[in-house]
Design goal:
The protein contains 16 helices and 16 strands. With 425 residues, it is an alpha+beta fold. The longest helix is centred in the middle third of the chain and has 32 residues, at 242-273. A hairpin with a 5-residue loop joins strand 3 (55-58) and strand 4. The chain has one domain: Cytochrome p450 (Orthogonal Bundle). The protein is globular, with a radius of gyration of 22 Å. It has helices at 36-40, 42-52, 70-77, 110-122, 124-128, 131-143, 154-158, 160-170, 177-189, 197-220, 226-231, 242-273, 275-283, 288-298, 330-333, 368-385; strands at 17-21, 26-29, 55-58, 64-67, 83-84, 150-152, 234-235, 238-239, 305-309, 313-315, 318-320, 325-328, 390-391, 397-398, 408-410, 412-414.
Amino acid sequence: MDRAAEPRADRERGREVTGVDVERRRPLVRFDHHSPEFASDPWSQLRELRESAPVAFSDAHGGFWVLTRYEDIRRVALDDATFSSADSIVIPPKKHAGQRSIPIETDPPIFYEYRRAMAPMFAPHSIERLDPIIEAFVDRSIDEFIERGEADLVHDLAHPVPALTTLHKLGLPTDDWRRFAEPLHNTVYLRQDNPERPAALAGLRVIREELVAAVTARRAHPRDDMLTYLIGCEVEGRPLNDTEVVDMASLTLQGGLDTTASAIGSALVFLDRDRDARQRLIDHPELLPSAVEEFLRYEAPQLALARTATRDVEIGGQVIRSGERVLMVWASGNRDPAAFEDADQVLLDRSPNRHMTFGLGAHRCLGSTLARRELLFTLRAVLHRLADYELDPALIVRAETVGVSYGYLSLPAHFTPGARFRQPT
């Protein structure tokens, strides 16, 4: 028997190999990426899996394979023919009937058509035109609280910057950004049994209704925004229909708000804990672009995504059957010592840094350039305007579940009060 398949003692909160599926000869692990235990410390659990059972089967959420090593994850991510994205990219699957995240929950060949339609909106030259707008949103957010000398850096900074930027790009109203942000964040940060979750799901339905109304309005009165652009796009020689446009806009909102906000929050926590690293970035701002990449690697804001096997295939010495679900844990691949030297350390000048935070292959995140710019401009402003901020560890609130996004619900901070750059508009 392979050593990885041997039963193990319960060494660390339930991610040990618990036995062997005798019929299929696969290692069974007690692993639930949505559990409170995992949310409290995912990194030691992922390290244990990488070392003891890098390709193992969990019976949580109907059963799925867990991949934790860089090369195994990379192999699956690059093989769209064998590993389909069409049956939901999260485990458990979303329960929004009839709603798809386009293009990420589609397969070739239609996937390439959808991606080709969206790509110009996220091309580097298109994102560069947003630079002054992103910087203005960062300054506007900080202006709202800097004179007080205290703020919640999640609610007052990490959430508004990507929300304002994404809504502006889509052409949706930015004055009430919380109405969009709060339901989106709560559906990924709160456990299934949280009593606030039904209200969050209701909020998602309201957002979708507003997107439907906005698409109808743009068809009658086009504007210079992403919604109007998508309405004018074609796939397979036909115009996109309203449902497709709404699905694309919904994915843009979700990806634009959740993962970027999570990345900002995690970076702020790290820089609070490591004051030497913070001072180094203040003294050497030229390091900030590489530091952004390292923050994205070290604590990936989106820990994992799923695929479905379309045929029997062997990965890491285990046979994955057709129809079985596979969870690619990006965050674990980013900490794999076989891929990264000193993988559990933050090296602000790490190079090269081939992290998989934005995915790999054809489905790699279209919004990666925009996310990087938002993270860069936010951290730059914090280091300049809130340079001595301090978080209260006792008041930090982590997300209840990190199965989709690794982030924080609250980061209360205090700092030396400063002056506004401009009055909020």
